[in-house]
Amino acid sequence: MRVMAQLAMVMNLDKCIGCHTCSVTCKQAWTNRAGTEYVWFNNVETRPGQGYPRTYEDQDKWKGGWELNRRGRLQLKAGGRLKKLLTIFANPLMPSIGDYYEPWTYDYDRLFSAPVTEDTPVARPRSLITGEPTKIKWSANWDDDLAGAPELAPADPVLRKVSDQVKLEFERTFMFYLPRICEHCLNPSCVASCPSGAMYKRSEDGIVLVDQDRCRGWRMCVTGCPYKKVYFNHRTGKAEKCTFCYPRVEVGIPTVCSETCVGRLRYIGLILYDADRVAEAASVRDEKALYEAQKSVMLDPHDPQVIAAARAAGIPEDWLEAARRSPIHKLIFDFGVALPLHPEYRTMPMVWYIPPLSPVVDVLRETGHDGERAGNLFGAIETLRIPIGYLAELFTAGDPEPVRAALRRLAAMRSFMRGINLGGERDESIPAAVGLKPEEIEEMYRLLAIAPYAERYVIPNAHAEEGARLEELATGCSLDYEGGPGMGGPFGEASGLPAPVAVENFHALKERQATDDLDRASELRGRVNLLNWDGKGAPDGLFPKRKDKS
Amino acid sequence: MNALDVTLWVVAPYVALTIFVLGHVWRYRYDKFGWTTRSSQMYESRLLRIGSPLFHFGILVVALGHVGGLVIPKSWTEAVGVSEHAYHLTAVVFGTVAGICTVGGLAILVYRRRTVGPVFTATTRNDKLMYALLALTIVLGLAATVVANIVGGGYDYRTTISPWFRSVFYLQPDGEPMAGAPILFKLHALSALVLFSVWPFTRLVHMLTAPVGYLTRPYIVYRSRDDQAGSRPPRRGWEPAGRP
Ligand code: SF4
Ligand code: SF4
Fold first, then answer.
1. Which sites bind heme b 2 (chain B) (predicted)?
2. Same domain, A386 and A535
3. What pLDDT, on a 0 to 100 scale, did the predictor assign at position A250?
4. Exposure winner among A481, A493, B28, B219, fewest CB in 10 A?
5. What is the CA radius of gyration of chain A?
6. Residues of A numbered 86-105 whose beta carbons fall under 8 angstroms of chain B's beta carbons: which are they?
7. Which residues does chain A have within 8 Å of residue B122's beta carbon, measured at their own beta carbons?
8. What ipTM goes with this model?
9. Span B71-124, pLDDT tens digits
10. Does residue A148 sit within a domain?
11. Are residues A445 and A545 in the same domain?
């Protein structure tokens, strides 16, 4: 047994209101630079929908992730090492900017500079790729809230797997939001695809990063990731991806997307797993067994044997303590409501989801039933084929049973707690029906509904003995910004030494502090420093500085 | 040998070689972040998928051919029984085919750079200079081969250019044989020298980090945080305690 620790996330989809706050704050913190205009480390998709980039889940087309070869061994779906090297000069499986979207800005200056005329001047869109006037045809969430769904949703690869009659039933459709970040997989195919070995999984906390100094722009990681969560910075020619906000989690504060989530639906905690068994579990033959296989790799942090092995592996005590308090472990094992996204890609993703009960409740309500009654809910979970089938294709490779089990528990929590809140009556038959004790349901309710900050985020600090130099650790995403210390070296943009994160923050802060009037506000490049905002008060730079106290 | 010949065939090679080596060392130390192919495949891939493999595979064969022709002495190939005629035939056939692939690929790539809007916008001045030198060298090389071998009935560069090439690396430079070579070969060699001296400062550096190690390394890379204590090595006097 080789115990390793992994920072993991669970998102409770029932609470997502699709506000995109997480995407925007993430972008503001990490990808508001030239070359990353189209890059959304966090994006929120409306399901059913095509996702971002378009139809990324269609692995017959994109060939991301792993598959089993004839001998039952894991191999990259896009081809082995030799094939990778032979196609390195033009990667046949790389999405083009059109599969994402052509980023644009508006000709805002026209609004001010246009001569006086009868007509109101219009700011026309301009492509950020060519600089030419453009027509906006697509974006990262073009099919938000099922916009254009009758035409667009049928191309959803998940929907196509579920059923042919879905198109016919579209009027009675269901909808939910799926926020996505990099899964920080236990068996990351992006890392395996990188020819230069620039991508790596941090052995302390499992965060998957791109070493910007070693990336040579071979683009194979973009193909390798089935979730399409490695992006190619088209200006610097380097791959970039979600960093799990490592500068933040190292000091124990949650990622920006979690911190700013309006629905408070994200949970962060540690999982201990047996690294020696990952490959074996990822190669079980039956795709539907992958969910259980992945669970079997994760270890019980209360088990004395596991604790001993973890100590032997050098995992510090406070981390073990955090693993025992981990909300992730509770949601996956104790409550059994969290499921992995697309386990069939065999990458062992570590951002899990609590499937949404709302499509079921909605159908019940629309048909005039009480959507909170345990009996109704249980019945609907059994009979509603389409929402369940769809969720199963997302979370369990098509096996409806784990989805049903999770939804039944959510339904049980809903009606049990309603009983208590309305009449004070504890109908203990409801928890029993889903195999939980009433106290467990109440604990789950506390975690899911009340969700106190300290229980949602149980993040141990990085080792204190590593001290201040952690903040200088710039192995991940480079934070160069235009005109910043790392941009504009002698070989064109972004050459020269990258700016360490702390230095960059320091520059941004200093710049803001040195600006004393609003006339120069435009020179701030609109940067609000979310990366080192701790969730209290207003983030630095969100509001202009007061001129003077009087 | 006059002074010009000495400058061109004795001094210049060392200057180019020094810039090439030191340039790479310097670039690697100073600009790891800029060390990339800066692929433009995101913008356009239809032309790239024809042009780029054509060019790259072509140039790889050409490079191999140069190793065969310049590095391996004629006496060696003859010792293993390859006659001048057989060598010549293989070299001309392979060389011409690979050369044409390279030039064709390059033509497609240059056309693409010029006509596809986003690719053109992403082209720096540095790139343009590099493209010009690269194209010049390749075209001169192909022209020299074609003119000498096919039109002119054969030129045995292995008795003139190759000894000169090797003499540079023996540190006993002998410009004499080169001074007598046909003009096209001379121009080809000169433009190559210029190309090598700008090489470390262009995106051609990606060649030096061709990822052959990928074939043998384990798929999943784990790295510890303390592998690298910061984005740069600690300055003198600031090394963390407890390290020898
Ligand atoms: S989800 Fe993240 S860790 Fe997993 S393969 Fe994609 S980029 Fe790599
Ligand atoms: S901020 Fe939270 S609620 Fe809003 S879209 Fe993101 S995950 Fe959903």
1. 66
2. no
3. 86
4. B28
5. 24
6. 88-92, 94-97
7. 234-235
8. 0.87
9. 988 889 888 888 888 888 888 888 889 999 999 999 999 999 999 999 999 899
10. no
11. no
Domains and CATH numbers, chain B: 3-213 (1.20.950.20)
Query: Rounded to the nearest whole angstrom, what is the distance from the C-alpha of residue A225 to the centroid of ligand 1?
Result: 5
Cβ distance B231 to A97 less than 8 Å, yes or no, reads: no
* Tally of domains in chain A: 2
Cα–Cα distances (Å) from A428 to A361, A412, A431, A443, B242, in that order, read 22, 10, 6, 15, 60
Confidence of residue A547 (pLDDT cuts 50, 70, 90): low
Domain ranges, residue A385? 265-456
Rounded CA separation A222/A194 (Å): 9
Q: Mean per-residue pLDDT for A523-529?
A: 55
Q: Same structural domain for residues A395 and A451?
A: yes
Record: contact A216-B37, CB cut-off 8 A: yes
Across the interface, whether the CB atoms of B221 and A199 are under 8 A apart is answered yes
Whether omega before A53 lies within 30 degrees of 0, making that bond cis, reads yes
A280's tokens: 């074996």
Three-state SS at A513: helix
B56 is in an annotated binding site: yes
- Where is the domain boundary, A435, A456, A477? A456
Nearest CA in chain A to B200: A491
A395 and A519 in a single domain? The answer is no
pLDDT of residue A5: 96
Q: Is the peptide bond before A188 cis (omega within 30 degrees of 0)?
A: no
Same domain, A324 and A424: yes
Q: Is A201 an interface residue toward B (CB < 8 Å)?
A: yes
Does residue A523 share a domain with residue A380? no
**What is the distance in A from the centroid of ligand 1 to the CA of B36?**
22
CB pairs A-B closer than 8 Å: 176
Condensed to tens digits (0 to 9), the pLDDT of residues B181-240 reads: 889 999 999 999 999 999 999 999 999 999 999 999 999 999 987 644 444 566 676 666
Whether A257 and A22 have beta carbons less than 8 Å apart is answered as: yes
pTM of the model: 0.86
Measured at the alpha carbon of residue B88, what is the angle toward residues B85 and B94, in degrees to the nearest 5?
Answer: 140
Locus of tokens 């890392």: A191
Q: Please name the residues between 202 and 221 in chain A that touch chain B, using a CB distance below 8 Å.
A: 202-204, 211-219
Pocket of ligand 1 (CB under 6 A): A 182-185, 188-190, 208, 225, 227, 229-230, 241, 347
Instruction: Find the CATH number of the domain harbouring A276.
Output: 3.30.70.20
Q: With beta carbons less than 8 A apart as the criterion, state whether B164 and B5 touch.
A: no
Contact A202 B222 (CB under 8 A): yes
Q: Look at residue A533 and tell me if it is in a domain.
A: yes
Has residue A119 got a pLDDT over 70?
Answer: yes
Q: Is the pLDDT of residue B129 over 90?
A: yes
Look at residue A297 and tell me if it is in a domain. Answer: yes
